[in-house]
Amino acid sequence: MKRYKCIISYDGSGFSGYQVQPNKRTVQSELEAVLTKMHKGEHIKVSASGRTDAGVHAKGQVIHFDSSLPISEEKWANALNSLLPEDLSVLSVLKVNSSFHARFDAIGKEYHYVLQLSKIRDPFMRYFACHYPYELNIEAMKEASRFFLGTHDFTSFCSAKTEVKDRVRTIEKIDFIIDKNSLTLKFFGNGFLYNMVRILTGTLLEVGIGKRTPEEMLHILEKKDRRFAGKTAPAQGLYLMKVFYE
Question: I need a labelling partner for 60 at 20 to 30 A (CA). Which of 51, 116, 184, 213 fits?
Fold first, then answer.
């Protein structure tokens, strides 16, 4: 058996998230169905760097799986893509050490949240950006984002459904990229909790429209209570861009 590390990309619009769920179409179930078909009915389990929710996209999700098939690294991607649906692609496949784990070996992630700021919504972007036609104070949002940098307990900024007990994470950088009618928030950190990027974004937007002050971010962090943060931004604006390893 050989272990393979894959970088995959998917349009999350047609999936009920990454993880396998009964009677639902998910990224993991599509991948495992194709691998099982290639292995003549033997179930092949796929492990990912982390889950993404329904509607969330990925341009650089990382998975691993084990296989005994005599297929070269160069031909794996073509073999998988010939069977996978059009909204899911394997970008690269690399043979790795059998101890490699897509989730546990990850040391950081990069997420982007895309906002469409035009007054009139673009119907062609409805699944790929969050339409937000309100006047934003970007400088106030940048000021607020600085309170998130460094290592903090992000309990206030994760879903109440978060299962992990350790909510301490490190955010290294948050960039604001403005391009015509769009704003992209780029988050770089050692890991992110369930809904964390979407809640951080939703809270920053409330700063942007003057509903909150930048200084409130410190107060929200200290409360360690989801009820004090802003709304969870919609799924369609979120992209997992890259997963970092040693």
Answer: 116
